[in-house]
Design a protein that fits this description.
mainly alpha, 6 helices
């Protein structure tokens, strides 16, 4: 019962904050809890989910490069502004944290908050540079 209340609280916070990703994630987890056969999947999702998520995010970030929306010309422009340097350095930090930190994220959920803040700062920097929509 406690887990349902906790998930409901997270859902309310997500709804108030209009955080669609968290709304969907909480709904999916609540749905999994309702279905009897998914109890076997939950440990696997818990153990591997962060790796899957990082992979999906990385793919989404690389798509503009694959489609030609971002090219070497944009990369060179990035190094001409202070915001560009911040974005590059933050990206390097995220790459390092992702490489060494994914296991830590799975083992210590509190680290997830810090990782999300770094990822968000990189995304914000890229938006400032207009490298992502």
């Amino acid at each position: 019962m406690e887990s349902w209340l906790f998930l409901a609280l997270i859902l309310v916070v997500a709804l108030v904050g209009k955080n669609m990703s968290l709304i969907i994630a909480t709904g999916v987890v609540m749905l999994f809890k309702l279905l009897p056969f998914t109890s076997k999947w939950l440990p696997t999702i818990q153990a591997k989910g962060i790796n899957w998520g990082v992979t999906v995010i990385s793919v989404a970030i690389l798509i503009p490069i694959a489609t030609g929306q971002i090219g070497f010309k944009d990369l060179i422009k990035t190094f001409k502004t202070p915001a560009g340097w911040i974005a590059v350095l933050a990206g390097i930090a995220v790459a390092i944290l992702s490489r060494y930190g994914v296991d830590q994220l799975a083992a210590v959920p509190q680290v997830t908050v810090a990782w999300c803040l770094v990822r968000l700062s990189v995304w914000s920097s890229l938006k400032v540079l207009q490298l992502v929509p």
